[in-house]
């Protein structure tokens, strides 16, 4: 009988040989396959988990900390993400926390348990992050569960070699014949060794069933404000130069199309048809009923018309040099741009420098400068008109995403304008008081941001779906997208700098489950016209005791999720409601800890070690530009900070909320990292208190988008000469934003450190060197969260306030 | 007006390139036609005629098969057939030059989507077709008209299914009738045996009766 089976297998292999050869060739594309060295596979999931007891969860996480007594809570290095308490072989293949993170790494078994713990449950994801290693699989069949359509992932269980059990809906599925063969190891009959089952993050090349229409080409449309104000700021020069420099690096293939529209009180289109000797400008002044002057040649193929495009970019800045137009018809320009892009879809980049005051979508100035520092409620956080939201939804339906660049010194009602990006999966960039002469640091930041924006990876006509194990359900989504049908997120463009957050609740008790899984699947068209699916799967254990839930709490993820929830609450209810809600979150969780988990009642404010930074982060949020009251904050700055809190992935949002402070005048090579043969010093992260500053030192504060280098009055002259190249403190220039490249060891170390910090993020943080008398000192000092200010409590006072509320 | 063009590999229906006339003024819902086009590409095989026109409502599908690749276009019914096929021929020549050799080796759908730029240009030159040169090139293709078969798209899409259903039914019938025949034969022989046995039993009892009663 065994011989018969062998012969049958052999026959089957011969029959499927035609299919196998292309498979084999395509597997050369798999970049890296993680093979666990021996060890039980996921098929042995249940017994190994049953054997593992939760004492292996580190007691360190539950160590009781009295926040009132211990002052040095910050670890010397950036806070790492907590590791879920899973058996080692599962945790090794689990999803990277930079991509997929949960606020509670041990999921409560029931909703009532979650309510008792008083902590938010949600996921934070960064699905399109630039990854250095990404396994790519081309397969004729993509194996998915028949009922819930989950992609096969490392956490399914194989019942025997022919059937697999879905880890989200527990249905048993058959393993298709092609899946039994593993081209990487050229072996048959071991489906659990295939790359789809060995990697939690994987990308599939999608077959034609996943396409509603042939893959769209990369289409880029630039909508530029050319009113008098815009020409004054001089941004057009920087933009045109940047685009000229990067025109060959725009993601796309030979079908890439570009177009340009400029506008002030009329709309100007540019005919770039191949064969014309120079670009032709067509002006449409009927802004009430906008139409396209010619049916084609407004969006042209980049490869064929490159010279014309370059000519246009060279002449644009001078074309409007003498303009005296002060009106801006942004709404009509957006409608015209939408008409132009709606046949194919693509990306629209809008550059605006003033409040739109003409035509549809005109806005009023709603901000009252006298109310900036009011301690009461902040008004006008919600949009004034739904024109921009409606237009964004239309754009989303035609696969057009709108990115907004706001370069303005006056109030621009970002609360209304921002809607155009929020619902069409675009991004908002904000450069307050941009001027080519008066703010060179902004110019540099704009340049570098443009370079990243034009050349970064992009995905078109994308949709994303997040699935979770039966029993859990997702109810609220945060980020820039449009939610179509309960859990399908429509993303006309997906970019590597966008983060998303979701809130979950537990519908049915997770009684007989030991682990739950979450899967995020992103279906997109790459800029080269390939349809791909990126799948991330995260697996977390289920626990039934409150102390286990507390030991698995991820304080940074919780802060990020609370920030998103607070932004929503500020817009729907009021800012003071949101502030109270955040404070209550801290109070509730610590109260729950004290009552339910602590066995010995001690005096003081007690928290588990994993939540020791929670009050500090809540205080940081309360003092953040988005939520602070009593300090003068421009409304646009506030709204932009709120947009960023919802849009940024967690790592950068945390830098925004709680900046990192380092002492840089005494950098040593002790404990330095060695990357690419450069030694990067690793100074200790300091607390954000003036206590830690010293007149004799120089300190670097990293807030994500901006870095401040503060020089103490009595700073060692060695630092000044070796790093800044000036003889003494008085000679430090006023607006220094570049570290001079000197040949000294200290200069090299400082620049290596700053460069390393900059390399860790895709956008470019500008650097400001400030002294005591500098205007930016106020910005620097505002980030000193632990200190008392005129309108806010110090950290210690906040802790006392919490303690008082808890013992009530 | 040419609304949709698709280039696919005949062997397995894998789409290689495509172009859709996305025009705000036309405003037609091409989704249904697109799925029909995809289905059609899958149904075609080496036995299908080289050139064919299929009627689908008030539109026509024209397709041309050459060297294992199918070139399909959806045009309005008023668009002249000769021009449609001249257009497809042109596409074939250009496509074969650029990508012909690589067609059997690709597995990813729309691997040659970059051919779209050429399709767009071709489409434009054929649609702006008051040009004499187009008419001239069409006249020389007149003899091809006789080779083009006109059929209804529904027939083609359903054809395969109907035929195979018929085939299975017919073979079913054959086997069933064979079975019936052998069963009938079997029953016949059995009943013959039963009859013979009954007669034999009767005679034996008669003989025994005669033997014992009369002697």
UniProtKB/TrEMBL annotation, chain A:
Domain of life, per UniProt, equals Eukaryota
Every copy of the Sec23/Sec24 beta-sandwich domain together lies at: 459-543
Protein name according to UniProt = SEC24 homolog A, COPII coat complex component
* Pfam families the UniProt entry points to: Gelsolin, Sec23_BS, Sec23_helical, Sec23_trunk, zf-Sec23_Sec24
Q: Where in the cell is it found?
A: Cytoplasm, Cytosol; Cytoplasmic vesicle, COPII-coated vesicle membrane; Endoplasmic reticulum membrane
Q: According to its record, what are the GO cellular component terms?
A: COPII vesicle coat; cytosol; endoplasmic reticulum exit site; endoplasmic reticulum membrane
Keyword set, alphabetical order: Cytoplasm, Cytoplasmic vesicle, Endoplasmic reticulum, ER-Golgi transport, Membrane, Metal-binding, Protein transport, Transport, Zinc
InterPro entries assigned: ADF-H/Gelsolin-like_dom_sf, Beta-sandwich_Sec23_24, Gelsolin-like_dom, Gelsolin-like_dom_sf, Sec23/24_helical_dom, Sec23/24_helical_dom_sf, Sec23/24_trunk_dom, SEC23_SEC24_subfamily
Membrane topology annotation: Peripheral membrane protein
Zinc finger Sec23/Sec24-type domain location? 142-178
Q: Which residues form the Sec23/Sec24 helical domain?
A: 554-652
The record's Gene Ontology biological-process terms are: COPII-coated vesicle cargo loading; intracellular protein transport
MF GO annotations: SNARE binding; zinc ion binding
Every copy of the Gelsolin-like domain together lies at 680-753
List each copy of the Sec23/Sec24 trunk domain by range.
215-454
Family statement drawn from the similarity comment of this UniProt entry: Belongs to the SEC23/SEC24 family. SEC24 subfamily.
Automatic annotation (TrEMBL), chain B:
Work out whether the entry's keyword set contains Glycoprotein: no
Location of the V-SNARE coiled-coil homology domain = 134-194
Any stretches that span the bilayer, and where are they?
Answer: 193-214
GO BP annotations of the record are: endoplasmic reticulum to Golgi vesicle-mediated transport; protein transport; retrograde vesicle-mediated transport, Golgi to endoplasmic reticulum
Which SUPFAM superfamilies does its entry note?
SNARE fusion complex, SNARE-like
Outline the subunit composition.
Component of 2 distinct SNARE complexes.
Q: Which family does it belong to?
A: Belongs to the synaptobrevin family.
* Primary role: SNARE involved in targeting and fusion of ER-derived transport vesicles with the Golgi complex as well as Golgi-derived retrograde transport vesicles with the ER.
Kindly provide the name given to this protein in its UniProt entry. Longin domain-containing protein
The protein's organism comes out as Amphiprion ocellaris
What broad taxonomic lineage does this protein's source fall under? Answer: Eukaryota, Metazoa, Chordata, Craniata, Vertebrata
